[in-house]
Amino acid sequence: MKGSAGFFLCLLLLLAPHCTEVATEDSQPDPKTPCANWMGGAPGYPGHNGLPGRDGKDGKDGVKGEKGEQGMQGPKGDQGEIGVPGREGPRGFPGYPGQKGEKGEGAFVYRSAFSVGLKERVPHPNVPIRFSKIFYNEQNHYDTSTGKFLCSIPGTYYFAYHLTVYLTDVKVSLYKKDKAVIFTYDQFQTNNVDQASGSVLLHLSSGDEVWLQVYGEGDNNGIYADNINDSTFMGFLLYPDPDVH
């Protein structure tokens, strides 16, 4: 036994350098050699994952696809705010004349006016003064024979008088339906010519009369007129009553 053991030991010593040289020459020994089977180690563990590589360049766009089918209509949105008005557009061409309308009813214009003057001194008091000089009396609403204005159109009238006073005092009244409405008094100054005047607005009904006359007794009838001095009386309709047709 000792001889056999010594033989194998010697053989192992002789083969060890040979196997070492072979290992240095090739890190991957031939599995067919006896040394490779005797000297091979256990398999190693897997290595760690490497770092991610860089992003590649973008590819080219592909061919445009076909148009898809129209989708379903969505719900109606909320009404938007009113926008700023736009600029005014250009002026259009004039339109064609319209058809002639039917003839309307004519509006009747109510007129009533007079303006008269005195030709001579007033002879008597307490009677209507008859102004016989006619400046205007187109409607003949003033009667020169009676000295009275007769209302034919109910409404509001304006009356005025301007009288020359000479030789004596004057006290005159404007009457409506036998009743004095206003009074005017002027005291004559010796060697002078005075003026007495008055005006009033009156509402008259159809048939009402208006006139002037010297008021009271005595020397109050100094109303005077000649070729260079006038005493006048006038009146006119301002507007008729609403119910006049």
UniProtKB/TrEMBL annotation:
Residues 24-102 are annotated as: Disordered. This is ADIPO protein. Its main location: secreted. Residues 107-244 form the C1q domain. Residues 1-24 form the signal peptide. PANTHER family: ADIPONECTIN, EMILIN ELASTIN MICROFIBRIL INTERFACE-LOCATED PROTEIN ELASTIN MICROFIBRIL INTERFACER. It comes from the Eukaryota. It holds the Pfam family Collagen. Keywords: Collagen, Hydroxylation, Secreted, Signal. Residues 54-69 have a biased composition (Basic and acidic residues). The lineage of its organism: Eukaryota, Metazoa, Chordata, Craniata, Vertebrata. Gene3D superfamilies: 2.60.120.40. It is found in: Secreted.
